[in-house]
């Protein structure tokens, strides 16, 4: 941040209205989302492990949201943070402490530009790092396309539901 500049706080909305995307969904869209988003029984064991853990409420929320990202898709730290009203760094820190990986799939979260980001608490440098090879392998097994520079190709998944 430049010297002399001040951060501007944005007040959180206090209204209890539903998410705007939910309001606009038509019946066919809801069916498509239901097919894409893992059903609770698909992630049931992982969600139970998360709920029973002695981790922070925020970490549990991040990991629970993470369970919605389907195999073969990736999302970004920023999209998750935006959905939660948080910051990408806070989401990344919670993912770094995910003790349930890879069943709770933190490997499906990448940086906004498609760079792989970190994995298991280790940052990547130019698409390489201690555990980045493992993250690449997991993503490629799920069908995610990654170019030679270690950048994920395609549009990030953002159909999170609360």
TrEMBL record:
Ranges of biased composition (kind: Polar residues): 12-28
Origin: domain of life: Eukaryota
Reaction it catalyzes: a 6-O-methyl-2'-deoxyguanosine in DNA + L-cysteinyl-[protein] = S-methyl-L-cysteinyl-[protein] + a 2'-deoxyguanosine in DNA; a 4-O-methyl-thymidine in DNA + L-cysteinyl-[protein] = a thymidine in DNA + S-methyl-L-cysteinyl-[protein]
Molecular function per GO: methylated-DNA-[protein]-cysteine S-methyltransferase activity
GO biological process: DNA repair; methylation
Cross-referenced InterPro entries: MethylDNA_cys_MeTrfase_AS (IPR001497), MethylDNA_cys_MeTrfase_DNA-bd (IPR014048), MethylDNA_cys_MeTrfase_DNAb (IPR036217), WH-like_DNA-bd_sf (IPR036388)
Limits of the Methylated-DNA-[protein]-cysteine S-methyltransferase DNA binding domain: 58-144
Gene3D superfamilies: Winged helix-like DNA-binding domain superfamily/Winged helix DNA-binding domain
TM region positions: none
UniProt keyword annotations, A-Z: DNA damage, DNA repair, Methyltransferase, Transferase
Region ranges (Disordered): 1-28
EC number: 2.1.1.63
SUPFAM superfamilies: Methylated DNA-protein cysteine methyltransferase, C-terminal domain
Biased composition (Basic residues): 1-11
Family designation: Belongs to the MGMT family.
Protein's name according to its UniProt entry: Methylated-DNA--protein-cysteine methyltransferase
Species assigned in the record: Xylaria grammica
Upper lineage: Eukaryota, Fungi, Dikarya, Ascomycota, Pezizomycotina
